């Protein structure tokens, strides 16, 4: 899944076309970030351009209102988009509005895949019937999310809740001294074979002293 969303619209189209030519599995795009869509049809009109640039590739929309400032009802959007964007397959839903996510899951007779994007909501989402998630924590601590899904399937709700609480504790440690992006990059560098470097400005990275503190606090959760 390749993320093609950006600020200059020509860049978005170029990236979508390039991804389509590479025959990637799917593309994910944010909305127009300057002339922000206000209504579902505004968003549909924008995504139709992206879809036309990558007609052979499944398309997913990235709903992240806290960062984009675009907070359109996703169930209403999916109902309207179902007949207008042929290769739209679903959304990544990064919002604490779990009720809205559930409405999106049921929209258009449940034809769309809804990826839950919040590390703090994985267990309640799985308990509601979601089976897909894209969460930053999975890069370092995947066993919590996969364990929650398996526990829910086995109706072991207490186990699932415990795993979610542990993951919540992990995320609280990661974000204790700065941004989530900087904290998760540090965790990946410390606990995985992949060195993703430091967060770029204007984000601030933890000091060497804080790095050791974060490492000590996270190690029991590995």
UniProtKB/TrEMBL annotation:
The keyword Lyase applies. Keywords: Carbohydrate metabolism, Cytoplasm, Lyase, Schiff base. Its main location: cytoplasm. One of its GO terms (molecular function) is N-acetylneuraminate lyase activity. One of its GO terms (cellular component) is cytoplasm. It comes from the Eukaryota. It catalyses: aceneuramate = aldehydo-N-acetyl-D-mannosamine + pyruvate. Gene3D superfamilies: Aldolase class I (3.20.20.70). Homotetramer. Belongs to the DapA family. NanA subfamily. This is N-acetylneuraminate lyase.
């Amino acid at each position: 899944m390749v993320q093609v969303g950006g600020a200059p619209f020509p860049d978005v189209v170029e990236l979508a076309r390039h991804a389509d030519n590479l025959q990637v599995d799917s593309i994910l795009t944010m909305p127009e970030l300057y002339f922000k869509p206000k209504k579902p049809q505004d968003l549909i009109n924008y995504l139709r351009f992206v879809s036309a640039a990558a007609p052979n590739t499944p398309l997913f929309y990235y709903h992240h209102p806290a960062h984009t400032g675009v907070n359109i009802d996703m169930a209403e959007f999916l109902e309207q988009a179902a007949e207008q964007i042929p290769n739209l397959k679903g959304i990544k839903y990064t919002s604490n509005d779990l009720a809205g996510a559930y409405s999106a899951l049921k929209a258009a007779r449940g034809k769309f895949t809804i990826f839950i994007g919040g590390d703090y909501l994985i267990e309640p989402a799985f308990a509601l019937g979601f089976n897909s998630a894209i969460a930053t924590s999975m890069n370092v601590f995947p066993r919590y999310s996969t364990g929650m899904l398996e526990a829910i399937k086995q109706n072991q709700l207490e186990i699932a809740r415990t795993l979610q609480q542990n993951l919540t504790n992990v995320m609280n440690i990661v974000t204790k001294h700065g941004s989530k992006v900087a904290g998760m990059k540090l965790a990946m560098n410390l606990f995985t074979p992949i060195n993703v470097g430091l967060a770029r400005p204007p984000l601030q990275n933890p000091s060497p002293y804080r790095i050791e503190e974060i490492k000590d606090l996270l190690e029991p959760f590995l």
